[in-house]
Amino acid sequence: MITVLIADDHQLFRQGLVAMLANFTQFKVIGEATNGEEALKLIATTHPDVLLLDIEMPQVDGFAVLKELRSMRSDTKTLVLTMHYSSAFIRNIVAAGSDGYLKKDSDQNTLILAIEQVYQTGSFYPSETTQMVMQSLKEKSKEDNITPREKEVILLIAEGLTTKEIAARLFLSKHTVESHRQNILLKLNMKNSTELVKYALKKGWA
């Protein structure tokens, strides 16, 4: 069973999600938060598998929640639910530590898929979203903006290390390593770790 925490300041939207997820036996909603501060407190006490997170909330917003979870090295996966739709916004939530993204007007089946996939694989971004970000990154020179930390992650992936092993080597959380990996894939217009290994070999890094 996948435990879910919902953080959104709109009561009707939260209630709609709770009612929807109640129809699926693989999910259990274990809490609701109306702002980021409440969300962080509930995460610390209930340790949900997946956090459904709105970005625009009072007191503490979604970006602050993402950054705090990263510093906490939390194992909770985060799926951002929002109406924002731009390559810059998506790059920002990836950089902040989000594991996935979905527009609030998506259908029920897509939401269920997104929750399951972000829980199982640590990542969910709709294909049209990924394509939009890829194009944006191409226009900004896709490989010149790889950071030293991202290069370290690429090298360790090329060595065959798992996310857990990379996290231990770099003294980071698994969540942070996965965020780095997703951001690298977006920057380099790649689909998986195999392509990253080929990239490292081509660059002479491995």
Summarize the structure.
With about 210 residues, this protein is α/β, with parallel strands linked by helices. It is about 55% helix and about 15% strand.
Describe the structure in your own words.
With 206 residues, the protein is α/β, with parallel strands linked by helices. It folds into two domains: 2-136, Rossmann fold, CATH 3.40.50.2300; 141-203, Winged helix-like DNA-binding domain superfamily/Winged helix DNA-binding domain (Arc Repressor Mutant, subunit A, Orthogonal Bundle), CATH 1.10.10.10. The chain has ten helices and five strands; from the N terminus they run βαβαβαβαβαααααα. It has a five-stranded parallel β-sheet, sandwiched between helices. Helix 2 (36-46) runs parallel beside helix 3 and helix 8 (163-170) packs across helix 9 (174-188). The chain starts with a strand and ends with a helix. The relative contact order is 0.11. The model has no long low-confidence stretch (mean pLDDT 86).
